[in-house]
Write a structure and sequence with these properties.
349 residues; single chain; Helix Hairpins; Elongation Factor Tu (Ef-tu), domain 3; 3 domains; 39% strand; 21 strands
Length: 349
């Protein structure tokens, strides 16, 4: 019994001694690793306020200032087509002529009735002043005159509508009828676009919508004319977001005779009016992890400590800092791949 107790006590003592030795060895190894890590060479930079330019460039679709379908107002047979695709037409020019024989006759008849009714009313008005006719007779003449006037205006309009004209100055981009074609009321016979002035439509984010304002200057570039910049300005910024929570922006620009643009082209718009802003910024290379889970090593004396931060936009090689750092602090920008939290570092140039 005593022998068994001695064996058990000896085994426990041996176990305790082995545990102590293993712990000492682990402590020595850890200290050796820390001593090695303390010599990690790194490059550092100071966190500071910087003036960073706003680089906002978006692609939009170039459209015509005005794009008008030319519509027939009266039915009839086309007797003449006075425009070809590609022709430039001034506002008021006739595009299509519809047979006007019947409409002209109705107009001339209504004009004759109107003129006679006007003379009758003038005559009854004069006679009424002389007490030669009754007030009722004068009022009947007035009624006949107004009815004749309404019929005359209607007939004149229908006769004029046989000459289908363009309401804007522009280029004919489509023609859908030929001589002899029967057209119906409200039928589209041609299309005219005004590209003397152009519109560029695009959408901007919520953040950018508050940085821009109507009247701001922009530059527009196209792949058709490499290196050529077209000047424009913001015409409007919608007060309501679309389903994608972006805000429609419309830009106007004059077309260029030397480098003419066409509706439907793509244009890259650069918002050059944005002014540089003072922001807290760090080099992009200092970031450890992703933009959503951003961290940097901050140097305290000769110790590098890992700290989570909040970053904003990337502007060139710089990242804006929204939180987690203060101006004047020193961060590691090169060599952080060999670091762990709370490791000593040696700062090198």
């Amino acid at each position: 019994m005593n022998r068994t107790r001695v064996i058990i006590i000896s085994a426990l003592a041996a176990g305790i001694i082995i545990t102590i030795l293993l712990n000492n060895r682990a402590t020595i190894n850890a200290k050796s690793r820390n001593d090695f890590q303390g010599a990690v060479p790194v490059s550092v930079a100071e966190v500071r306020q910087q003036k960073l330019s706003e680089n906002l460039s978006l692609v939009g679709t170039i459209g015509a200032n005005n794009d008008v379908p030319i519509v027939a107002e009266v039915p009839g047979k086309v007797t003449a087509v006075l425009a070809q695709v590609g022709d430039f037409k001034q506002a008021g020019n006739v595009i299509v002529q519809i047979d006007d024989e019947v409409k002209k006759a109705a107009y001339e008849q209504a004009q004759a009735v109107y003129e006679r009714a006007k003379r009758d009313f003038d005559r009854f008005s004069s006679l009424r002043e002389q007490q030669a006719v009754t007030q009722a007779q004068k009022e009947n003449a007035w009624t006949a005159f107004k009815v004749a006037e309404a019929q005359y205006i209607q007939a004149r309009r229908q006769f004029q509508d046989t000459r289908i004209t363009t309401p804007i100055s522009g280029i004919v981009t489509a023609r859908y009828v030929d001589r002899g074609t029967m057209v119906n009321d409200r039928m589209v016979v041609a299309n005219v676009v005004d590209i003397s002035t152009l519109k560029v439509k695009l959408n901007v984010s919520e953040e950018d919508a508050f940085k821009l304002k109507a009247g701001d200057k922009v530059e527009v570039a196209t792949e058709v004319y490499p290196g050529v910049k077209f000047e424009g300005k913001i015409k409007s910024i919608s007060a309501k977001a679309d389903e994608g929570h972006t805000y429609p922006v419309e830009i106007t620009m004059n077309n260029n005779r030397e480098h003419p643009l066409k509706a439907g082209m793509f244009g890259r718009v650069s918002f050059v009016s944005l002014t540089p802003s003072d922001v807290l910024a760090i080099p992009r290379e200092a970031l450890v992890g992703s933009m959503k889970d951003a961290k940097v090593y901050v140097v305290y004396g000769s110790i590098a400590r890992l700290r989570p931060i909040v970053v904003g936009e990337q502007k060139g090689t710089e990242l804006t800092v929204l939180g987690g750092l203060q101006g004047g602090e020193t961060i590691v920008v090169n060599g952080q791949n060999n670091l762990k939290d709370s490791v000593a570092v040696e700062m090198v140039k």
